[in-house]
Amino acid sequence: MNDLKMTYLFHKPVEEVFDYFTRPELFELWGAPDGMTLKVHHMDSRPGGSYSMTHTGPDGDYQCNGTFKEYIPNRKLVQMDSVLGPDGNAFFHDLECITEFEDDEGNTKVTVTQRGFTDEKTVQECKQSWEQCFAKLEAIFIESNFPEYEASV
């Protein structure tokens, strides 16, 4: 089975972490892997809501469109994504992404499960992308806890 499942612990409360997944202006800050940028065109964060965004990298634009199949504030998101590559062909079609948020003594355990990959190589590439994105989000949280952190780096 070509699924991806990974867990990450953020040292912030669930409500704050959830906001970074569902508010476009916050998601844009961390939601693209290294070497890419992200522009959220719209994000209707609610059950049945849709979203559209573009990841831009050195080889062009990846257009991602999808819907929230399930939206339970501060607990769970289930999204269905379709992604068009720079050539206009489907890069992913009907990729399911389940994101679960769990309080862990004031911290937040985030578990991401993605289903619908066609091969193991793509699973590993997506795993690496998630790791890069989570590192960006963690850096944002560290900076908000310790504003002097950015100045000392």
What can you tell me about this protein's structure?
The chain is an alpha+beta fold. The protein has one domain: Alpha-D-Glucose-1,6-Bisphosphate, Chain A, domain 4 (2-Layer Sandwich), CATH 3.30.530.20. The chain is built from four helices and seven strands, in the order βααββββββαα. The protein has helices at 14-22, 24-27, 120-145, 148-152; strands at 4-10, 37-43, 50-57, 60-72, 76-84, 90-104, 107-115. Strands 1-7-6-5-4-3-2 form a seven-stranded antiparallel β-sheet. A hairpin with a 6-residue loop joins β2 and β3. The protein is globular and about 45 Å long. The model has no long low-confidence stretch (mean pLDDT 92).
Briefly say what this structure is.
The chain has 153 residues and is α+β, with helices and mostly antiparallel strands.
The strand order across the widest sheet is 1-7-6-5-4-3-2
Q: Approximately how much helix is present in the residues?
A: 25-40%
Structural class per helix/strand content?
alpha+beta
Number of domains: 1
Name of the CATH homologous superfamily: START domain
Strand content: 35-45%
The total count of strands amounts to 7
SSE topology:
Layout: E1 4-10, H1 14-22, H2 24-27, E2 37-43, E3 50-57, E4 60-72, E5 76-84, E6 90-104, E7 107-115, H3 120-145, H4 148-152
Antiparallel strand pairs: 1-7, 2-3, 3-4, 4-5, 5-6, 6-7
